[in-house]
Amino acid sequence: MVSAQIEQQAVSRLAAQEIRYTKGRRQVIRALARAEGPRSASELHKDLDEDVPLSSLYRSLSVLTRAGVLSPHHGTGGIIRYELAEWLMGHHHHLVCDRCGAIDDIELPEHSEAVLNDVVTTATRFRDFVATGHSLEIAGRCTSCA
């Protein structure tokens, strides 16, 4: 079940941008909150028992992404998978199967996250680039494809 707090934060974000919280958008947010990692439009369509027409689903994904409620992840084969934005779900990284495209969320231990922050700082320092965040995607094979 979606926590009331996550849903209320999403509703507030949409309201601040004068975007309606429609039934379809609510269903997308709830489905992604239940998901174990990012989901493609096709996967979401199946998760929603096809209650939301595919054209409406794509519109909802677009609106929620532009509003900053969803984060898209471009995976293998050009498939985009979506998840709730980091400000809603917390900081994490991804394991991406380069065969089937499955994406699993992982959280790094505090020490490893600090090392990764140092890498980001080093990588951006030489280009006068100010990093506002980072995301690590590790490509490989999931247990089903290995």
Any chance you could write out the topology, listing elements then pairs?
Blueprint: H1 4-16, H2 23-34, E1 39-40, H3 41-47, H4 54-66, E2 70-74, E3 80-84, H5 86-89, E4 93-97, E5 103-106, H6 110-125, E6 137-140
Parallel strand pairs: 4-6
Antiparallel strand pairs: 1-3, 2-3, 4-5
Helix pairs in contact: 3-4
Tally the helices: what do you get? 6
Number of strands: 6
Strand order of the largest sheet: 1-3-2
Distance, first to last CA: 32 Å
> Over all CA atoms, what is the radius of gyration?
17 Å
Order of helices and strands: HHEHHEEHEEHE
Structural class determined from secondary elements: alpha+beta
Report the mean per-residue pLDDT as an integer.
90
Question: What portion of residues belong to β-strands?
Answer: 15-25%
Runs with pLDDT <50, length 5+? none
Query: What about the largest sheet?
Result: 3 strands, antiparallel
Helical content class = 40-55%
Shape: globular
